[in-house]
Design goal:
Number of strands: 7
Strand order of the largest sheet: 3-4-5-7-6
Order of helices and strands: HEEHEEEEHHE
Radius of gyration: 33 Å
CATH class of the largest domain: Mainly Beta
Number of helices: 4
Number of domains: 2
CATH topology of the largest domain: OB fold (Dihydrolipoamide Acetyltransferase, E2P)
Strand content: 25-35%
Helix content: 25-40%
C-alpha cells in the first residue's frame, strides 16, 4: 500500500487537528516554565527544608542559654555570655537594657543576671551593658544590699527599679559623673536605682 504523500494539501479536519496539537504542546511548555518561575520565587522568598530563603524568609536565631534552676545563673544570656536582646529570658532587665526608649519603663522593676560592668564612676554609680547594647547607669541608693566588687569587667546580678534621670548638671553633682556620662544619662532619661547588687561566680 502506498504511503501518504507528505506534500498533499491537508484537509480541513487534518489542519485543525495539527493546529490544536501544536497549541497543546506549546501550552504545556508555558505551564512548566510558569511552575519553575514560581518555585524559584518561593525558594528565594521563603525557602524550604530549614533554609530561610534569600529575601524575607526565616533566619536561624541565636541560641540562648536556658536558665539553670539550681542557681539561676546565665538567664537571659546568649551563648557568647552577653545579655540577649530578645527579652525572653533574664527578667525585665534584659528588655529594658536593650530598649532604645528607656523612659517608657520608668517605675518598672528591673532585674538582670550576670551582666558585665562596662565602666565605674566612683563607689556609687557604674554602667552596665552588653554586646551591641548602649551602657545604662546603675546607682546604688541608700541601704543597697551588695557583695559585689564593682570594677570594670566584673559581672553582677542587679535588682532594682527604673528611675527618671536628673538633669546632666544634677547628675554631675550627685554622682560625680563626667560631662560625657552626664549628657548620655540625660539623653537616655532613665537609670537603674539598685536595691541589690551581687557579684556572680563567673
Amino acid at each position: 500500500m502506498a504511503s501518504p504523500d507528505p506534500n498533499k494539501p491537508l484537509g480541513d479536519r487534518d489542519r485543525v487537528e495539527r493546529e490544536v496539537g501544536a497549541r497543546v504542546g506549546y501550552g504545556w511548555i508555558w505551564i512548566w516554565i510558569a511552575v519553575i518561575i514560581i518555585l524559584v520565587i518561593w525558594f528565594g522568598g521563603f525557602g524550604w527544608g530549614g533554609y530561610g530563603g534569600w529575601w524575607w524568609g526565616r533566619r536561624p536565631q541565636t541560641s540562648v542559654v536556658q536558665p539553670n534552676p539550681a542557681n539561676g545563673q546565665n538567664a537571659g544570656l546568649a551563648t557568647n555570655g552577653e545579655p540577649s536582646t530578645n527579652g525572653a529570658l533574664g527578667g525585665a532587665g534584659v528588655q529594658i537594657l536593650a530598649s532604645a526608649n528607656k523612659q517608657a519603663f520608668i517605675g518598672k522593676p528591673f532585674s538582670i543576671l550576670d551582666v558585665p560592668v562596662q565602666q565605674t564612676d566612683g563607689n556609687q554609680a557604674f554602667w552596665i551593658g552588653g554586646h551591641n547594647v548602649p551602657p545604662m547607669l546603675v546607682v546604688r541608693e541608700g541601704n543597697t544590699i551588695t557583695n559585689a566588687n564593682i570594677q570594670q569587667g566584673a559581672r553582677v546580678n542587679i535588682t532594682g527599679v527604673i528611675a527618671r534621670a536628673p538633669s546632666a548638671a544634677e547628675a554631675r553633682r550627685m554622682w560625680k559623673l563626667s560631662d560625657n556620662d552626664a549628657n548620655r544619662l540625660e539623653q537616655q532619661g532613665a537609670y537603674v536605682q539598685a536595691s541589690q547588687v551581687e557579684a556572680t561566680q563567673s
